[in-house]
Design goal:
Helix content is 30%, strand content 17%. By secondary structure, the chain is of the alpha/beta class. Helix 1 packs across helix 4. The model has no long low-confidence stretch (mean pLDDT 94).
């Protein structure tokens, strides 16, 4: 394990040097933007590491909002007539600079769905494997951050290749993988810090950052409750009462992966698209027959939270489908709070760990 010291005066020059080997992605504001978002950095543009956390998660780097997955032709004169063909696309090395640790951890949760022994989504996996994640530790977490409860805290290294720690006039870059070491070399950042001293500083900042997080969730009892018990719980009407089904929570969430497939045809040629979708929309489950198994608002709200906090937990036995970033808490227009819902689910019904008392 090696820690590199990066003087902030050398930061911009190193970013430009790395451009020769990588596409660069980072948080930045566009000309007409009010908030920073993750996008490709133009020449001489550096990632805005001083910006507040992005409203949208960086999941679109790997999982675009709209993506062509097949092209086809119905022209009988073509040898490809009636064949669905994946369009040719290159995946050059891409450095994602300034990603928050919980967002990097989110990719690992989503990977459980898109990269399995039985099925591999080549679009998601090829894009993900092309990425080198240069994370930025969160020295001062926001009040809605509950990432320590989901094991994706402000200095979490899971899913990262390098962890950057802001030390005011310089960064300490903790190399986690060979991909991370290759990026730092391409940027020309190779000044080794005193490892013992640097590790001590990082651990002190980590402890201070984690201590600032007072928002928590507990889900230790959810896995022991039956699906039907939680599905039929009496609190869902209350939780869903104010929801307007806008889908904001799903679109900005780093672990939501729902999509729709649409074909667009022009003459004898066409394309098949994969587009972000949301379980909050009535059309999401509308059958061609006109029947909708989740036709009411309360059903859709229940589905979202049951998937995040129960189904995922039961299927993978590796925690909930949430990294505690707090985006949905901050952005929900009617103040529905996943922390409250998690608490309701965790404490619903009798405690499965309680001992029965006999007369």
């Amino acid at each position: 394990m090696k820690i590199v010291k990066i003087d902030k005066q050398d930061w911009a020059d190193g970013i430009e040097r790395s451009r020769a080997s990588y596409r660069l992605i980072g948080p930045a504001k566009g000309e007409n933007d009010d908030f920073a978002g993750f996008r490709e950095l133009a020449k001489d543009e550096v990632p805005d590491l001083a910006a507040a956390d992005t409203v949208l998660s960086p999941k679109s780097i790997v999982y675009p909002q709209s993506e062509v997955i097949f092209e086809y032709t119905t022209d009988k004169k073509s040898e490809d007539c009636n064949l669905l063909k994946r369009p040719e696309k290159e995946y050059p090395p891409m450095a994602v600079i300034g990603i928050r640790p919980y967002d990097a951890a989110a990719f690992l949760l989503v990977k459980k769905n898109f990269d399995t022994p039985e099925f591999r989504d080549p679009y998601w996996c090829d894009a993900y494997e092309a990425c080198t994640f240069i994370g930025l530790a969160v020295n001062e977490p926001l009040g809605t951050d509950f990432s320590t409860s989901t094991d994706s805290g402000p200095f979490c290294e899971e899913g990262l290749d390098v962890l950057l720690v802001d030390m005011a006039d310089h960064y300490l870059a903790k190399i986690i993988t060979d991909k991370g070491a290759a990026y730092l070399k391409a940027a020309g950042w190779e000044t080794q810090a005193d490892n013992d001293s640097a590790l001590k500083q990082i651990e002190e900042l980590k402890a201070a950052a984690e201590a600032r997080i007072t928002s928590t969730v507990t889900f230790d009892k959810i896995g022991q409750k039956s699906i039907l018990s939680l599905y039929n719980a009496d609190f869902w009407e209350d939780v869903a009462f104010s929801c307007i089904n806008c889908g904001t929570c799903t679109y900005l969430c780093p672990t939501c992966w729902c999509f729709d497939i649409q074909d667009e045809n022009h003459g004898k040629s066409g394309k098949r698209f994969k587009n972000w979708d949301t379980c909050m929309d009535p059309l999401f489950t509308l059958h061609g027959s006109g029947h909708n198994p989740r036709g009411t608002k309360v059903m859709r709200v229940r589905q979202r939270f049951m998937h995040k906090l129960k189904y995922f937990l039961d299927k993978y036995d590796d925690g909930i489908m949430c990294v505690g970033c707090g985006r949905c808490v901050r952005t929900c227009p009617v103040n529905i709070d996943i922390r409250r819902v998690c608490d309701l689910m965790n404490n619903y019904g009798p405690d499965p760990n309680a001992c029965a008392v006999s007369d």
